[in-house]
Amino acid sequence: MAKKPTEQPLQRSGKAGPSRSGPKRPRRDAIAELPSREQILEAMASEPDVKGKRDLAKILGVRGDMRTPFKRLLRELEGEGILTRTRKTLRITSALPAVTVLDIPSDADPDDLHAFPATWNEEEGEAPRVSVLQPPNARVVPAPGDRILARIDAGEELVPHYTARAMKILDKPRRGQIGIVRMDEDGARLIPVERKQKEMRIPAGDLGDAKDGDLVEVAVKFSGRMMIPRAKVVEVIGNPATEGAVSLIAIHNLDIPFRFPASVEKAAEEVKEATLKGREDWRHIPLLTIDPPDAKDHDDAVYAEPDKDPANPDGHIIYVAIADVAAYVRPGETMDREAYLRGNSVYFPDRVVPMLPERISNDLCSLREGENRPSLAVRMVYSKDGIKKSHSFHRIIMRSAAKLSYQRAQAAIDGNPDDQTGPLLEPVLKPLWKAYAAMAKARDKRGPLDLDLPERKIILNAEGMVDRIYVPERLEAHRLIEEMMIAANVAAAETLEKHKTPLLYRVHDTPSREKLTALREFLSSLELSFDKTDAVKPANFNRVLANAKKAGKTEQVSEMVLRSQAQAEYSAENYGHFGLNLDRYAHFTSPIRRYSDLIVHRALITALNLGNDGLSQNETIKLPGIAQHISSTERRAMAAERETADRLLAGFLATKIGAQFDGRISGVTKSGLFVRLLETGADGFIPASTIGQDYYRYVEEQQAMIGDRTGEMFRLGDTVQVRLLEAAPVAGALRFELLSEGPRVNPSSYKRSGKRPSRSYGPKGRRR
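Structure tokens predicted for Ribonuclease R (768 residues):
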């Protein structure tokens, strides 16, 4: 807290202290010098009748030529949040609490952080600027763009100089409420993007420049005795219909930066292409990229050849080259700060929000066919059984021999090469597949979690709406690239640990005891068992999945196994990757789209003396904070991608109200059932009050709703038929009616002890 001044007031001629008629006028012989900040605050604290700058000037003897610089000094104090002006009255600003939530601006200097209070009464004037201290061994290390809980020190001086020590990095709340404007005969209304929020009227005078279909941010105000909420447009964000970008809603709802500042674009344009200086020349090695057919940036290339070392018979040498983003994006510079703020690229069906400007991501760093590109590469030697014998990292210039899609590479291996893949088949593709076959042996022996869930892909038409949805075929080419990327990631972590260089790990914790207990109870209801051991391994889950497949219960068990897993994240401390069954793992292979990988590249450059653009000491100190931030931006990206898919699918199905669909129960709660449609993957909800002709009790251990009287059961993973009753495209919400009947069980076996709810449901779910 800022201390209230206790010193004696300035000594002036005449009587001290205030009078009822106002402040005393100074004597004519008062010194007409510009007072200091401390003198101004001291005078204001000791003269409670001071109302404005005129009173203050009289008390301090300011006159003549000193008046203009005096006014300027007062404005500076206001601008710094030390003084507050209400109309013509000046007063000392309230002090910050000892513990305060602060927001660090996204454009703050990482080496000299400052922040402002997250909440501030505008009547107090400008929010005070707070210097954020960054001690070397701090447990919490904030960065630009973070919101922090901090301990505040105002100092001992009369003019408070606030400093803060971060106690915790907080998740930022979503921005103000946003929605779509819909014009009607009575004026306009707001269709909220949040499913739980209700529509609001927009008074005519509060519409601003918004038009029908515009996505807007609103302030909510209440009117009348009934305190009816009404919306006032404060910003027009855009029009998803005319811009053809449904993702615009999620981008703004989750505060995802999607336009690069001019300074970042300028910095990208000014970058000079990397040369061979200080690098190894690998342009003779026919590395090639294998990506989705619509990929625009290519950040990894692979090649394999037989190992000619007699000590490694039938062994393989595998090369993985990764775009050298660190060559262009330097620590602390403009592009680096923006990349950190974004944390990762975000992929939508209708657009990509990249982490780096196009000049970097799609040009200088993209491993284009036939063009020289700087890379950070790893050379790995494997035995015929897929055991890694050694590896080494190299900073290189490479030239991609070919740009292939998964489908074309797989077709060539399957005996259907084309004009480009035909000449590559014997010298490049077959050695790659042989090396992968060896790696697959070791992978199967290692036993990572074998939870291969299909992912649907949404294809849009020219208007930006859903054209079709399909599940891409899972090819061996996909697994080959995945396995080689995993191997490169492990090699990076091992090298950095060996050199005792701090790094960011990609970690995945062991499932919690509570989740394992819930899984065992659920499996027991399906007459399946789970090993009773405290040292649970992925192999335990794989056995359950294999048994479920034999029993025809793959969907139910896969869904529950997925729910039992912890969420992967980034950490400066290593606790292994449970899902991959690896002791150490780091993300190294996608620096174009993940900030974590850029950090690992810089760490390798520093550890191996590969250049002067490696991990700085300042970044090393901040690794815990960086890990927390990019874990948060990753979760934000996943939420945005999921929200956008939900909105696109809800819009696609909005014309099919009343149609019947096959689906699978994907979630069970007290309030009802979540159902995922088999054909489109769209998710919808069935309220508990509309299920069947009974009162349905939620039985957690069964992950089921069970009728009290009939024993009818609807359980996680069950296939059901539903009718679409309602679609809300803006909110991405669907409501279904359940048409199927469930199997019967003995209801008394599942009734919990205690008082039964007083309500019950009659035919068609109507309460009686």
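The chain has 17 helices and 33 strands.
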